[in-house]
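Example S7 (structure tokens).
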């Protein structure tokens, strides 16, 4: 049962078709055998009754004259063979007198003259009972129970008096050759039909089952190989298989959207958790750091002594502490006061800063901007977004390559795009691209993109990355109010 259920449709359909053909052939053969038996039985009974009447009429004179030899000759001449229908040949013919004793028979050694057929036992033992119980003047068919022989009895009548009976005995086994021949012919026809049906059903099964097999293969890939399963060629038709394929494609699309949403939620939650942790650490560092800088500033202004070494050391410490403070401040991406709106001059300033970094590596920086005037966006945060993206692009570009900045003012959003050539970002890095300290470069600490992501989120915008061999583009969309 398990083996049958695990069979492929390529085998199930042909096997079921052949099983249907075989079952139909067996049923039709059985019906033909039953019909043939009925027809043979009717023909045999008709022939036996006709022969019995002829013999009864012919044997009246020999019986009246007690001419046993003449009666025997008549019986022998009546037992002609029928090659086309051997079942019509009587196995035994008996002539009995009024006392049911044998007058003459075709088998005198088995049925001697004057003996009773009942001495043979079996069916012949039941024959006398059947002869007595019925109408002695009418033809009858006697079929004793569990007997391989049945009898057709015809009365010998002279002047209205029953002189005896003509008994024809027929073997039921004689029907077997006809039945065997019929079954052989039916089996031959069935085999020929199966030989024709088998390749046809195989082709039909392949055409019918192939779409289902492709669909099953696609479903086996879900959810582990979702993209590969989506690209499998599925049937496009209006029947049930086509409808199932369409439903499967919709299901895969929904699963892809669900996976993408889950991935974004995981990334957002992870970034939020890192942001909260980083902000707490930065605050804890900023408090003593601010106190140290204030103390140094007070000492420099009001302290005694003009020791050059002490002043030089204090200046060095101040620069170092100031750099630490700026780094910590980069971790605290908080909403700042809009000291002034973002303007086209800020783009020019950023170009100057980026070109200074790019010049040393022979990298060209191109800016395309349609910003004319100011926007109701915080200039400090916008400059930080663009500067980080530009410096990252210059760092990732090839020697002698190029970086392009596109600033496009939309109807309700500001579109920014920073593109560089060079190595692309592999897919396995995309999920952690905007996390802090996730860089693989030895020229930075990995905070730039994290800061950009935090600022874009605060401004209600979106950021996305497209990276292929040969180029990488960071796209940022930030909603804005009215231009100034």
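Recovered sequence:
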């Amino acid at each position: 049962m398990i083996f049958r259920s695990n069979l492929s449709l390529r085998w199930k359909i042909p096997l079921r078709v052949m099983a249907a053909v075989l079952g139909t052939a067996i049923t039709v053969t059985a019906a033909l055998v039953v019909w043939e038996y009925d027809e043979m039985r009717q023909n045999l009974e008709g022939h036996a009754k006709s022969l019995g009447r002829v013999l009864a009429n012919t044997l009246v004179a020999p019986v009246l004259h007690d001419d046993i030899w003449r009666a025997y000759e008549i019986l022998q001449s009546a037992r002609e063979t029928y090659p086309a229908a051997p079942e019509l040949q009587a196995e035994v013919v008996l002539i009995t007198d009024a006392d049911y004793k044998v007058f003459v028979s075709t088998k005198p050694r088995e049925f001697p003259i004057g003996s009773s057929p009942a001495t043979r036992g079996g069916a012949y033992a039941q024959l006398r009972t059947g002869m007595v119980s019925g109408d002695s003047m009418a033809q009858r068919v006697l079929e004793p129970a569990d007997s391989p022989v049945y009898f057709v009895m015809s009365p010998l009548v002279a002047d209205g008096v029953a002189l005896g009976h003509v008994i024809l005995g027929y073997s039921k086994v004689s029907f077997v050759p006809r039945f065997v021949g019929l079954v052989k012919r039916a089996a031959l026809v069935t085999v020929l039909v199966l030989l024709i049906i088998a390749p046809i059903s195989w082709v039909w099964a392949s055409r019918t089952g192939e779409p289902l097999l492709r669909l099953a293969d696609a479903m086996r890939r879900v959810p582990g190989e979702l993209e590969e399963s989506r690209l499998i060629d599925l049937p496009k038709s209006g029947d049930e298989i086509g409808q199932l394929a369409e439903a499967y494609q919709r299901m895969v699309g929904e699963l892809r959207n669900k996976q993408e949403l889950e991935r974004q939620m995981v990334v957002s939650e992870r970034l939020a958790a890192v942001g909260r942790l980083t902000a707490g650490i930065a605050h804890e560092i900023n408090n003593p750091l601010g106190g140290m800088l204030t103390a140094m500033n007070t000492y420099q202004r009001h302290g005694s002594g003009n020791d050059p070494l002490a002043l030089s050391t204090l200046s060095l410490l101040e620069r170092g502490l100031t750099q630490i403070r700026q780094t910590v401040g980069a971790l605290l991406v908080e909403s700042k006061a809009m000291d002034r709106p973002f303007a086209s001059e800020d783009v020019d300033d950023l170009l100057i800063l980026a070109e200074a970094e790019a010049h040393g590596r022979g990298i060209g920086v191109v800016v395309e901007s349609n910003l004319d005037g100011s926007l109701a966006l915080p200039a400090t945060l916008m400059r930080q977004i663009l500067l980080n993206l530009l410096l990252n692009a210059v760092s990732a570009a090839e020697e002698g390559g190029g970086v392009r900045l596109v600033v496009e003012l939309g109807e309700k959003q500001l579109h920014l795009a920073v593109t560089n050539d060079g190595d692309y970002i592999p897919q396995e890095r995309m999920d952690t691209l905007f996390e802090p300290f996730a860089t693989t470069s030895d020229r930075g600490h990995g905070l730039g993109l994290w800061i950009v992501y935090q600022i874009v989120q605060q401004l209600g915008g979106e950021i996305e990355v497209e990276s292929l061999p040969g180029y990488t583009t960071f796209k940022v969309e930030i909603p804005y109010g009215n231009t100034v």
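Notes on this example. The CA atoms of residues 182 and 422 lie 85 Å apart.
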